[in-house]
Amino acid sequence: MDYAVETFQLSKMFETKEKGRKRVVKAVDHVNIKIGKGEFFGLLGPNGAGKTTLIKMLCTIILPDEGTAKINGYDIIKEPYKVRRSFGWFHGETGGRSLYWRLSAEDNLRFYAYLQNVPKDVAKRRIDALLEFFGLTEDRGKLVKEYSTGMKVRVMLARALLHNPPILFMDEPTIGLDTISAVETRKLLTALNAELGKTIIFTSHNMFEVEQLCQRVAIMRKGRIIVDAPPSQLREMLREIRSVEVEVREASDLQKVAEQLVAIPVVGKVLEIKNNAYGHVIRLQVDNEYEAIPEIAEKVQRLRVKVSAIRQSEPTFEDIFVKLASEEE
Ligand SMILES: Nc1ncnc2c1ncn2[C@@H]1O[C@H](COP(=O)(O)OP(=O)(O)OP(=O)(O)O)[C@@H](O)[C@H]1O
Ligand SMILES: [Mg+2]
Q1: Which ligand is nearest to the CA of 58?
Q2: Which terminus of the chain is less hemmed in, N or C, by CB atoms within 10 Å?
Q3: Which ligand is nearest to the CA of 31?
Q4: 276 touches ligand 1 (CB under 6 Å)
């Protein structure tokens, strides 16, 4: 079968200096993945997991130390030009800087089409179609600096599609977006996949976003893919990880409060104690938050601890990793 992306023991190491000492980071560690044509593939993982490094190798921005990959059937090391014609790239964090704010959307697209060697007549037709697809036809002449965030994202997505690539690499496209623009971006990505048949490789920190959008989800940790599953399986895993956060205003002895809460029969262990803008947060593992929350409320009242909130909390990557490790034992 022909894959959109296929990696073979793909690896990249970085040498860094920490306090004068050399340290080797295995950013991507012998990764083997196969992504079918037309798939919407989500890559999840905490900071530093290796997502961007993996995408950068697939985009021929950096070379692997070991292994290789095929994009649209072309080898990233031997056929980089053919690879580059096969994909569009979008990076949420640096994306904003990749448009000329004092040019209109149309002029931006025309300029980038020229850089990508798209023939003039083809470019004209394609720009019209892309502006239409992204709902920008009316505002095509407006300067990008006058656009809303959501509109800028749409121009950047259009930019990634100028050479009509079958594959799109989207590195955290929703990072830093307000809720409305993030929802809009997700809808557009779904349309690009469903209506135009683009293969999408999508990275994110947001488990719920990935679970909602993708047909397959991989989770990376320390350079390795440790989960590769359909979203239903991730959903199941997330459902099993239940926790409650107790936000404590002031507490002279947080540890002691945590110990008292763990003593409640329906409360499991302490997952984490952290500080936020409002005070301290104790995160507790529970089997059922609806049973645990009233019990916790009663206990803190008896203990006379000043608590500003008790709520259900979302699972973290660490929770998933701990769960996976415990299942392996
Ligand atoms: N150019 C570089 N030089 C040295 N180390 C690097 C370089 N690029 C990445 N790394 C290291 O490689 C590891 C993987 O980084 P990478 O940016 O790929 O992670 P990521 O999953 O994209 O993280 P994030 O979610 O924060 O974007 C990290 O430990 C990072 O510090
Ligand atoms: Mg990254």
Answers
A1: 1
A2: C
A3: 1
A4: no
Which protein residue's CA is at the shortest distance from atom 4 of ligand 1?
Answer: 14
Q: Name the β-bridge partners of 225.
A: 220
SS3 assignment, position 10: strand
Q: How many angstroms is it from 83 CA to the middle of ligand 2? A: 21
Of the two residues 57 and 16, the one the predictor is more confident about is 57
- 327 backbone dihedrals φ, ψ, rounded to 5°: -70, -30
Residue to substitute in 14, 22, 202 for testing ligand 1 pocket (most ligand atoms within 8 angstroms of CB): 14
Q: What's the CATH class of domain 242-328?
A: alpha beta
Query: b vs e for 55-77, b when ≥16 Cβ sit within 10 Å of the residue's Cβ?
Result: bbbbbbebebeebbbbbbebebe
288-302 pLDDT, tens digit per residue, is 999 999 999 999 999
> What is the rounded average pLDDT of the residues 240-251?
88
Judge if the beta carbon of residue 199 lies within 6 A of ligand 1. no
**For 3-237, which CATH superfamily applies?**
P-loop containing nucleotide triphosphate hydrolases (3.40.50.300)
What tens digit of pLDDT does each residue of 164-221 get?
A: 999 999 999 888 888 888 898 899 999 999 999 999 999 998 888 898 899 999 999 9
Residues of the chain with CATH 3.40.50.300: 3-237
Of 10, 22, 43, 51, the residue with max ligand 1 atoms within 8 A of its CB, to mutate for a pocket test, comes to 51
The pTM assigned to this predicted structure is: 0.87
Measured distance CA(247)–CA(249) in Å, rounded: 7
The boundaries of every CATH 3.30.70.920 domain in the chain are 242-328
Which is the closest atom of ligand 1 to the Cα of 50?
A: 18
Q: Looking at residue 206, what is its pLDDT?
A: 87
Q: What gap in Å lies between CA 116 and CA 285, rounded to an integer? A: 52
